[in-house]
Structure prediction request, 282 residues.
Amino acid sequence: MVDINTAMAAAATERRNRDTGDKERKKNRSGADMGIEAFDPVKHVSKEKADTVSMWLVISFATTISLLMRYVAMPSSQDNADMLWFIPMLGIFLIPSIHRAVLPEKFVKHYTKGTWFKASFMHIFTWLALTFLLTNAPFADIVAPQVDNGWGMISETEDGFDYSKSSKINLTEGYTGEHYLVLAFTDNSDAADSDYIITFGEDVNSTNSWKEIEAIDPSALDSVRSHKDIDYPVAIKVPDELAAGTYTIVIEIIEDGDPWENTRTVELELTINEFVEEDSTE
Prediction:
């Protein structure tokens, strides 16, 4: 006969041995036994090659789209600018078909929805980067010259010219001397190559008088030029004896850009204050 203490000790020992065996078996089980797919180096290499081929195919496709949009579509689409981004975005839906049409089955069989997702983003960012490069200097010029350093008025004095900034440009009726509204234009190409059509009130095609000012004082226009060697100055002479009122000066800039014509309109405002005689009391 076996006493109860001996039986309980034997049962505890058996239970410990059984638990240890289960742990050892779990530790020694393969990945497949645990539900993990076994690593296949050959299949892994094939998938990596397929992904690399897909990457270069998408880059080539996005590059082709960028070049076509820049040099074929862009010159004739100034009035339909939405087309320049809408067509490249539609290219996303062609990516799976291009892969299946161009690549052999040994590559295509590795592609999944995740592949098309990654390829779509690569297409978009490659197209954006190349388009940004091709539509800016030195490959293109799609923006007309712009005002460089604000505008103002210079007035002739005995010591040269005094400059007043553009916060509020005005003269008093009956003014004397020479006064010019001045500003300068800058561009990623030579701003002097553009056409500047100046309208002062009802006077169309007012002249640019900056050469006259430069002949008197070469530094008179430095206040409106950040880049003296490349900025194009414009000086508009204020006519003598203007009546009191507000006058609008319009400068229309027309540039033969690349790939299309660039335009910009700048408006300046000059106020002639009414002369008020001082009351004299005896």
